């Protein structure tokens, strides 16, 4: 029996927009077990990012509870590692010094923090770029540098908000394979937010599909594809069956929200 | 930031030599720019000389550049002594403005209430003409260097505060959230995100501040002083030593330019990432 790492019960969240309350999340139940890879997918505006912000502690739920390791925690900042949509590399820090930001905040001496980061530059494909400023890096490398910063924080849980959204298709495919390997070797719990059905299915043990605003869990899909997985799997019958199922559900939601139909 | 994301793999190892080449290509026109600037100044000075000589303009009305040059050389001891006095006023006054300005900007950026209390005063200090305040200051602090230093500090304080406050506010809120999720305390958010993000703004403020400092020193000296280039200029003017007035002006001008250039060099040394980024934008 594995331990439950993250547990959300009936999470509600709304934001005030021009003196009006706009509900964003409406009673979301969610959990991720230790070492599990869980994805959250939904049409834009379904509150995916708000969900991650809530787990990370940047937002507090209006109603409902968030538990980490089976304990109700309200001050969650600093307890989980969170990689936001933008890479947020500091232009005034070198790649290496960006990577150690979390360790610095924790009070680890710079010298030691840099040594720890240097041990990982190969794994993150950043060898030879440690002393460069972020603006000299390609999109994929920037993303990996942000990943390194996130992993170095040393938390059991990684929250990833559309980490590959800004990358071209080829780089994205490479990064997905790389992430799968990384996850296999690190043994961390990962929660990934994405709007890419293939990405969610390829990477995850379980996928939460959210409705359009306000976000509710419309569907939970256990992805029972064998591991290790590869991109060729996206043409397998089992994969295509689940995908068709999910795309139909997403299309329904997009149409309800009056958006472009899901491809 | 997102520019790099938009073009993945655009700048990699392979393109670095090409980049260096392009840099060289950029430096050449830069040198050309200096040559053009020097030539145009030389042309203007030459024209001035010509006009004065051709029209036999009396030297106390408009001295020729050669006359000003002669004065610079012949009175170099006197001029240097007064230059040193003015430079001292500028440097001390500016240092005070820099220290108090950045401190105040930091406080304003952290506490909104403080902003509402202090900012109007800061703006008022700038809208009341310094030429009105300077004689009053003379009454309060007397005739010494303190008076000039305060005028300098008052005049250069404003651009530093305003620019630094803007800089501290320009920090990407997501960057601040990132630090919060890393468990950073408020002072860590300030030290690791807001302060570095504000540095280019601070330097802009310093560049403006340091140049107006020289003006501040001259105003201070006019209102009440017995030494300094501003004092020398106004005294020489009443004695119809027009060459000396011009010589003092040239030195004041050089002082301003020199201080500006020094700040520029310091900025390049202290914010290499910022110039790197700007250069790249030019190259793109």
What does this structure look like?
The complex is a heterodimer of chains A (263) and B (284). Chain A has a domain at 1-80 and 191-263: P-loop containing nucleotide triphosphate hydrolases (Rossmann fold, 3-Layer(aba) Sandwich), CATH 3.40.50.300. Chain A is 34% helix and 25% strand. Chain A contains 8 helices and 10 strands. In chain A, a hairpin with a 2-residue loop joins strand 1 (4-17) and strand 2. Chain A is globular and about 50 Å long. Chain B has 284 residues and is mainly alpha-helical. In chain B, helix 8 crosses helix 9 (186-223). The longest helix of chain B is centred in the N-terminal third of the chain and has 40 residues, at 16-55. The model of chain B is unreliable at 1-15 (pLDDT under 50). The A-B interface holds A 56-58, 77-82, 84, 86-93, 101-102, 104-106, 128, 133-140, 142, 153, 166-168, 171 and B 1-13, 172, 174-175, 177-184, 188, 192-193, 196-197, 199, 271-274, 276-277, 280.
Described by the principal axes of the CA atoms, the overall outline of chain B is flat
- Would you tell me the overall average pLDDT of chain B? 87
Question: How many strand segments of chain B?
Answer: 0
Beta fraction of the residues of chain B? under 5%
Largest β-sheet summary of chain B: none
Count of spatially separate domains of chain B: 2
């Amino acid at each position: 029996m594995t331990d439950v790492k993250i547990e959300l019960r009936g999470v509600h969240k709304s934001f005030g927009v021009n003196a009006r309350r706009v509900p964003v999340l409406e009673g979301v139940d969610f959990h991720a077990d230790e070492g599990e890879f869980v994805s959250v997918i939904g049409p834009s505006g379904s509150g995916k990012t708000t969900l991650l912000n809530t787990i990370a502690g940047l937002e507090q739920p209006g109603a409902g509870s968030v538990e980490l390791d089976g304990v109700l925690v309200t001050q969650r900042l600093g307890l989980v590692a969170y990689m936001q949509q933008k890479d947020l590399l500091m232009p005034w820090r070198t790649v290496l010094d960006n990577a150690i930001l979390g360790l610095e905040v924790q009070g680890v001496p710079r010298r030691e923090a840099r040594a720890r980061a240097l041990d990982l530059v190969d794994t993150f494909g950043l060898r030879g770029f440690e002393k460069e400023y972020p603006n000299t890096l390609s999109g994929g490398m920037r993303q990996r540098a942000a990943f390194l910063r996130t992993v170095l924080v040393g938390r059991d849980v990684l929250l990833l908000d559309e980490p590959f959204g800004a990358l071209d298709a080829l780089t994205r495919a490479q990064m997905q394979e790389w992430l799968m390997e990384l996850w296999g070797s690190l043994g961390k719990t990962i929660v990934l937010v994405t709007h890419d059905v293939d990405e969610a299915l390829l990477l995850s043990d379980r996928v939460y599909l959210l409705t359009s605003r306000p976000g509710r869990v419309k569907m939970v899909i256990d992805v029972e594809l064998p591991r290790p997985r590869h991109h060729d799997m996206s043409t397998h019958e089992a994969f295509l069956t689940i995908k068709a199922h999910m795309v139909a559900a997403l299309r329904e939601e997009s149409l309800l929200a009056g958006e472009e139909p899901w491809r | 930031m997102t520019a790099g994301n938009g073009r993945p793999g655009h700048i990699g190892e392979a393109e670095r030599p090409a980049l260096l080449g392009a840099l060289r290509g950029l430096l050449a026109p830069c040198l050309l720019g200096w040559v053009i600037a020097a030539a145009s100044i030389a042309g203007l000075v030459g024209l001035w000389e010509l006009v004065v000589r051709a029209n036999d303009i009396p030297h106390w009305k408009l001295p020729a550049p050669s006359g000003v040059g002669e004065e610079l050389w012949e009175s170099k001891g006197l001029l240097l002594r007064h230059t040193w006095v003015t430079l001292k006023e500028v440097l001390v006054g500016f240092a005070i403005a820099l220290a108090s300005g950045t401190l105040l900007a930091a406080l304003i950026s952290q506490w909104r209430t403080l902003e509402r209390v202090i900012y109007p005063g800061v703006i008022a200090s700038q809208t009341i003409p310094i030429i009105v305040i300077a004689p009053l200051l003379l009454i309060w602090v007397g005739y010494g260097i303190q008076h000039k230093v305060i005028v300098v500090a008052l005049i250069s304080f404003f651009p530093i505060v305003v620019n630094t406050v803007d800089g501290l506010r320009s920090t990407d809120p997501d960057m601040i959230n990132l630090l919060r999720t890393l468990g950073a305390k408020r002072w860590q958010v300030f030290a690791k995100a807001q302060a570095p993000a504000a540095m280019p703004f601070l330097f802009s403020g310093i560049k403006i501040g340091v140049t107006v400092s020289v003006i501040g020193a001259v105003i201070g000296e006019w209102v009440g002083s017995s030494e300094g280039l501003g004092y020398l200029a106004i005294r020489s003017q009443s004695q119809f030593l027009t060459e000396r007035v011009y010589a003092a002006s040239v030195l004041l001008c050089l002082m301003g330019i020199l201080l500006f250039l020094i700040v520029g060099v310091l900025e390049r040394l202290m914010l290499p990432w910022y110039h790197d980024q700007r250069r790249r934008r030019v190259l793109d």
